[in-house]
Amino acid sequence: MEALPNSPVISLPAMQKTQTTIRQEETAFVTLSIAEQLCGIPVLGVRDVLNEQQITRIPLAPPEIAGNLNLRGRIVTAIDVRRRLHLPPAPAGMRRMAVVAERGNELYALLVDQVHEVLNLSANDFESNPPNLLPNWAAHSAGIYRLKDRLMIVLDVAKLLSLSDQRH
Predict the structure, then answer these.
(1) For position 43, what pLDDT does the model report?
(2) How much is the pTM?
(3) Whose CA, among 66, 72, 79, 130, lies 20 to 30 Å from 97?
(4) Please, are residues 26 and 147 in contact by the beta-carbon 8 Å criterion?
């Protein structure tokens, strides 16, 4: 079909559909810090964000399992993301936060240093991990976003929660 002179090549409904598609290609991320590194987790994978909670240690649990906490009557396994990433422990007295995610009908609290804001980022700006990203980060990252003043690592929650690959 040929366009008539002075007629739009794309009709208005088609243009609106294209603009909607562009907006849908944005992903919202809960941003957080771990050892001063900015990270993001897709909002759709986050159930709750918690301030510091009382955690009960689990005897003989792997070191990255901080323990259990009670979330509205449900027992939630708390995972220390710093330990999971083989980073130094949090400074003494630091009040840490938790991002709660679900996997296989179980809730997990990812202990992080700080939770920030929600950012909407374009899928077009998403990049794969750079070759110089440290292996401990790359193993748990889905990719990165280069923001105007820093790098945001997109954490792969499934990889963070998969504890079986950490047995040595």
Answers:
(1) 94
(2) 0.80
(3) 130
(4) no
Helix (H) or strand (E) holding 33: strand 26-34
Architecture of the structural domain at 45-166: Beta Barrel (2.40)
> How far does Cα 134 stand from its chain's mean position?
17
Three-state secondary-structure class, residue 144? strand
Note the pLDDT tens digit of each residue in 95-121. Answer: 999 999 988 888 999 999 999 999 999
* Nearest of 137, 130, 144 to residue 159 by alpha carbon: 137
The torsion angle over the Cα atoms of residues 89, 92, 94 and 97, rounded to 10 degrees, is 50
Answer yes or no: are the C-beta atoms of 127 and 143 closer than 8 Å.
yes
pLDDT at 3: 43
Domain boundaries, the chain: 45-166
Closest CA to 55 of 97, 84, 116: 97
Where the chain has pLDDT below 50, the residues are 1-22, 165-168
Q: Give the CA distances from residue 85 to residues 44, 102, 142, 150, in Å, rounded to whole numbers and listed in that order.
A: 23, 20, 14, 20
Give the DSSP H/E element, type plus range, for residue 23: helix 12-24
The single-letter DSSP state of residue 34 is E
